[in-house]
Amino acid sequence: MPFTVAEHIRSIAPYVPGKPLEELEREYGIADSVKLASNENPLGPSPKAVAAIGEALGRLHRYPDGSAFALTRKLARRLQVGPEQIVLGNGSDEILGMLSRVLLGPGDEAVMPRPSFLMYEISVRSSGAVPVFVPLKDLAIDLDRVADAVGERTRVVFLCNPNNPTGSVIDQKRMSDFLSALPEGIVVVLDEAYIEFVRDPAAARGLALMDIGRPLVTLRTFSKAYGLAGLRVGYAVMPAELAQLLHRVRMPFNVSSLAQAGALAALDDQAFLNKTLRQVHKGIDDLFEALAERDIACFPTQANFFLIEVKKSADAVFEEMLKKGVIVRSMSAYGYPTYIRVNAGADEENRRLIHALEQVL
Ligand SMILES: *Cc1c(COP(=O)(O)O)cnc(C)c1O
User: Is the pTM of this model over 0.90?
Assistant: First the structure.
């Protein structure tokens, strides 16, 4: 049955997510595998969030609070911004979509590093706009080249800090110089999905740059450090004028009542956040030590994941590792055909990763 679809939609390459654990186990006939491919929390979800979701179940016949009053207020107090500056999403992915719908139309340009998070490109193309890619330099975002790529038609710049998939960070001073030198009217989206894991005190933080006189959007998520990837809730802090426009295109009940309840409770679960950070930092340090002992090259990271250079086909390494019950991410789709990405897991998962890698390499 023929139907007509705009070319800018037809040309979108589908996002390839890490496959769910259950699906891979079924496909490969394995059990008891460990998944270190999607940067998920090795400790599971925040227990306080799980309890709060349980309590909210009895009210599922009600529509959610479309304004997410309580969660928005709590975030605003926590982040010391106004509630009118906050927009919540069904994952921060959804907020990327809203930003593209509001800010981009056919022919407009959005500058983004490559490789970086694949959803920037997809959301930009969905608006009929044109992604302009800036290659990384030494696996890090090169702000000079990003600035050079900004032109007459640029409306948005996407930056990912720490950058997925490399784990590199932008320095606060460099970031502030970049923003000050940017032509007026361009919105910078700073994706801080992994900011909680950052240990470098010099790393840029969007919330500290809100007063710089450029429209800045700081994007955060409950999916990683709070262990709530399956719940789908993220948020962004931006100038109130821009937030108002996002609310116009936002679906009225985009954050479910369970997501609101879970996120509210997670914000009060400082113990879980601390425990997560301790486990992830220990995991990263243990893995780096074990890889160095085996002369396997990996790249410094400020996130809960990092790149390993496998010096042969990453797709083949992915398959081999999978047969040993360890799920990693091949970076071939990101343009690094001999690199894999792994995230820090629980101690036992990390040991299994090293053991499997040793055998495969
Ligand atoms: C995981 C991730 C997100 C978070 O997406 P959600 O939709 O909030 O789960 C955003 N940006 C990057 C770079 C990520 O890796």
Answer: yes
